[in-house]
Amino acid sequence: MSRLEAAQRLLGHRFTRPGLLAEALTHRSAAGAQGIGSNERLEFIGDRVLGLVVAEWLIERFPHEQEGKLGPRLAALVSKPALAAIAEDNALAEVLNVARGEAKRGVLTQATVLADALEAIIGALYLDAGLPAAQAFIRRVMGTVMEQQSIPPKDPKTALQEWVLKRALPLPEYVLETTSGPSHAPNFIISVRVADALGRGEAGSKRAAEQGAARALLNMLPP
Q1: pLDDT tens for residues 144-177?
Q2: Strands, DSSP E only, in the chain?
Q3: Cβ atoms of residues 214 and 192 within 8 Å
Q4: How many Cβ atoms sit within 10 Å of the Cβ of residue 16?
Q5: Between 134 and which of 21, 124, 126, 179 could a Cys-Cys bridge form, CB atoms 3.0 to 4.6 Å apart?
Q6: Which CATH class is domain 3-148?
Q7: Element (H or E) spanning 223, and its range?
Q8: Strand pairing partners for 200?
Q9: Which pLDDT score, from 0 to 100, does residue 1 have?
Q10: φ and ψ at 131, to 5 degrees?
């Protein structure tokens, strides 16, 4: 089975413009081959479509909650780690097109690559079939995650700060370790340390990378 055929089965949609799907599946390391661009443009629009669909879903599911609770719910559901886990559950890495060298270096296991690819195929689906098709796919692959979110999640940075304050420890300090990528698609790696424990986060914005670092550190610390 071809890469495109397998992806169409995953999406439950046969593309009228298969070039869109081919682009959505193409990592920037493989862009240019056979005239196919990278999935960064489609990731850009897919991110917006995903945010809209999930926001509408949350309003529907929690009709009495205000923005203060809905915001953290949305942020958790569309975070890179959450999207990467969904991509892994649906074997998205198996249909992605990456350069052989990058594949050997493990790029297909990186959360940002998997999350961005998921957003890209959502963008491609939206452009090919409209919002209802994108919504149906998003609700199908995110249904379990949505059901599990009964209590509004706490912002990881806030939760980490509360953890250290309860123990009279110094406030967490976030350090920007590296910045890479083009200006329109940057990648930040940020670390945060509490006592002898260190957490790292990687994302396309400093804020998201800080959240990821705090989340990673919280997973190491005792309750």
Answers
A1: 999 887 777 777 888 899 899 999 998 999 999 9
A2: 173-180, 187-194, 197-203
A3: yes
A4: 8
A5: 126
A6: mainly alpha
A7: none
A8: 191
A9: 61
A10: -65, -40
CA distance 174 to 151: 27
Other CB atoms within 10 A of residue 36 CB? 16
DSSP symbol at 30: G
Domain boundaries, the chain: 3-148, 156-220
Question: What is the rounded distance in angstroms from the CA atom of residue 77 to the CA atom of residue 73?
Answer: 6
* CA–centroid distance for 182 within its chain: 19
Q: Indicate the pTM of the whole model.
A: 0.73
Cβ atoms within 10 Å of 83's Cβ, excluding its own = 26
- Residue 173, SS3 per DSSP: strand
β partners of residue 194: 197
Going 12 to 125 to 8 to 108, the CA torsion angle's sign is negative
- Set 23, 40, 43, 47: catalytic member: 47
Residue 185: what are its φ and ψ, rounded to 5°? -145, 65
The residue-averaged pLDDT of 121-138 equals 97
Catalytic residue among 23, 116, 119, 202: 119
Give residues with Cβ within 8 angstroms of 33, minimum separation 6.
97
Same fold, 3-148 and 156-220: no
The average pLDDT across 96-112 equals 86
For the domain 156-220, what is the CATH code? 3.30.160.20
CA 127 to chain CA centroid, Å, is: 20
User: Is 47 an annotated catalytic residue?
Assistant: yes
